[in-house]
C-alpha cells in the first residue's frame, strides 16, 4: 500500500481485516465540527545496525544526526502532509494558528517532535520555513516523558495479561507452522548478519529489514545476500509478528491494552468539546508506526501492511444530516487513511458501518476494543482489573477554556495501561 511519495517497509500477503475502500467523502457532506489525526513521523535513519553491516563503520557519516533521527526527506514528507491538511481543512481552520482551535501532542522522541513541527510548518503559513524573523511564529508541541506516556507509546513492559494474550497468539498452530517454515531462512540469515535469529523474538529479524530498507531508500548499496526475495520474506515475518500483537485471537482484548486507549481518548475528546461548547477543532498526534498499527487493530482495519513514513489516519466528526431523533446520535464519524502522497487518501469504513458512520453506532461497534470503565485488565486472568486513575490535565497553566479541555486531551493518558507489544516505537 505504500505509494511512491512515502517510503515504508515492503509488506507481505498476510491479510487480517481489510478496510472497505470507498470514494473520498466530500467535506460538504454535513458540517465538519471536529478532527483528530494520528500520523507517523517522517523518514528517519535506521534504528540500529547488525554485526556484518558493510556500512556500520561509516554510520556517523551516513547519518550525521544519529541513528533513529529524522532526515531531510522526513522533514519534507511532513511539510507536504501539513500542506495536505491545510488544503483539506482550509475552510474549517483559521488561516493562522489559534491555540484554542488546535492541540498537538507528540511522543517524547526527537523524530516525532520534529515531525510535528515540520507538519505544523506546512499547515500554518506563519510557522513555515523561510519566514522573516519578524513574521515567524513557532507553534507549541506538547509531550510527556516516555515512561509516563500511556496514550501514544506502545509498548509498555509490565502487563501480565498482554503477555498472556500474546503467548496465546504465538503458540497458535497457524503461527507456529509459519514460523517453522522460516527456520531455514532465519538460519541462513544468521550466517549473513552475525545475529542470533532462530528462536529469538521476531523483532530481531525486523530490525535487519529496517536497516536494509533505510539504507536502500537513501541509495546505499545492499549486501549481495539482501535480494528482493529476502526483503519480501523479512516483510512477511514482520507481518506475522504484528498480526500476533493486534489481530486474532482475542484482538479486542489486546486492543483494550493498546490502540483502544487512544481510540477512546479521541471519542472522549469529541464528546467533551461538544458537551462544553469548546472551540477546539483539531487534535494532532505525532507518533510511530506501532501507534498506527495498534489503532488500526482497535478499529478492525489492520490489513497486514506497515504504515509508511508520514502515513496519516484521520477521524472527521460531522453534524448528522439524518433524523436527529433516532438512537444513533446527532453526529457521524468518517475515517480516512493517507498512505500515498501521490494520490487521494483512502476513505475507510468501520466493519459493520459504511461511512459516514453514525456516532452512536461507531461507539457501539468499537466498545469491545476500548478500555472498560472499571479499568484496564492488566494484571492477568487471575487478578482483578486495575481501577482507573484520576485523569491528569496536560495543559496546566492554559487559559480557562483550555484548562477545561485539558482533562479531555489527557483522558486515559494516565490510566494504568501497560502492554508488551512488538518492541517499541519506530
UniProtKB/TrEMBL annotation:
Stretch forming the signal peptide: 1-28
Family annotation (CDD domains): HP_HAP_like
One BP annotation, GO: negative regulation of ERBB4 signaling pathway
Domain of life of the organism encoding this protein: Eukaryota
InterPro entries, sorted? Acid_Pase_AS, His_Pase_clade-2, His_PPase_superfam, Histidine_acid_phosphatase
Protein family according to the UniProt entry: Belongs to the histidine acid phosphatase family.
- Return the protein name: acid phosphatase
According to its UniProt entry, this protein's organism is Camelus ferus
